[in-house]
From TrEMBL:
It is found in: Cytoplasm. Belongs to the class I-like SAM-binding methyltransferase superfamily. EFM4 family. It is an enzyme of class 2 (transferase). This is Protein-lysine N-methyltransferase EFM4. Coiled coil: none annotated. SUPFAM superfamilies: S-adenosyl-L-methionine-dependent methyltransferases. One of its GO terms (biological process) is methylation. Its EC number is 2.1.1.-.
Length: 207
């Protein structure tokens, strides 16, 4: 069966488990056939800059770190290369976790813990304590979840038409739970008299 290309989906489908299962089913096939670990979402630069931020701000290599929505595990692999020793990744797509484990095994990093978990199936998992929690795109996908369309029709908060969050919007969204710590710096560009960057990554700490 031919699997659909990523671009065949509507933007809101990025928020569905079925979309990501399809993506990672295909990428598992590619990995087995040609050794390609698959797409690095938001690009290599976003990974490099997140890793750089972590190495500057999390100096204890024994710090427990979890990546929410880990996908193929690329971000954790890069942290392992930097010497971090307590790494875990979770994803609600079992296909993603299969890929992440396969890639880690090939690189002799099988000690990285990967789990296919979601809150409904295993709420106990979320009682684990980590010192650093990473998210490279998961909140963006949640923001596009199509199940909220009916709520939007009723005048309630619904899915965003895109996931281009600004730093100010993220700080506002999470201020009830966290306070701003710092942000990852990306190259900036100017358009229409406004200055910005293509990616926004913000670090928070508990209130």
């Amino acid at each position: 069966m031919e699997l659909p290309e990523v671009q065949d989906f509507e933007a809101s489908k990025l928020g569905t488990k079925s979309y990501w299962d399809t993506v990672y089913d295909r990428e598992n096939e590619n990995f087995q056939e040609i050794g390609d670990i698959g797409e690095v979402w938001f690009g290599e630069e976003s990974v490099e800059r997140m890793v750089e931020w972590i190495t500057e701000n999390v100096t204890d290599l024994e710090s427990s770190i979890v990546d929410l929505g880990c996908g193929n595990g690329h971000l954790l692999l890069e942290l392992a290369n930097e010497g971090y020793k307590s790494l875990a990744g979770i994803d609600y797509s079992e296909s993603a976790v299969v890929l992440a484990k396969s890639v880690a095994k090939e690189r002799e990093l099988e000690w990285i813990q990967y789990d296919a978990v979601d809150f409904l199936s295993n709420p106990q998992w979320f009682k684990h304590t980590f010192q650093v929690v990473l998210d490279k795109g998961t909140y963006d996908a949640i923001s596009l979840h199509p199940d909220q369309i009916e709520a939007k029709k009723q005048g309630k908060p619904g899915p965003r038409e895109n996931c281009n969050w600004t730093m100010e919007e993220l700080i506002e969204s999470f201020k009830q739970y966290f306070k701003y710590h710092s942000h990852v710096k990306y190259p900036v560009f100017q358009f229409g008299g406004q200055t910005g960057s293509k990616i926004c990554t913000v670090a928070f700490q508990p209130i």
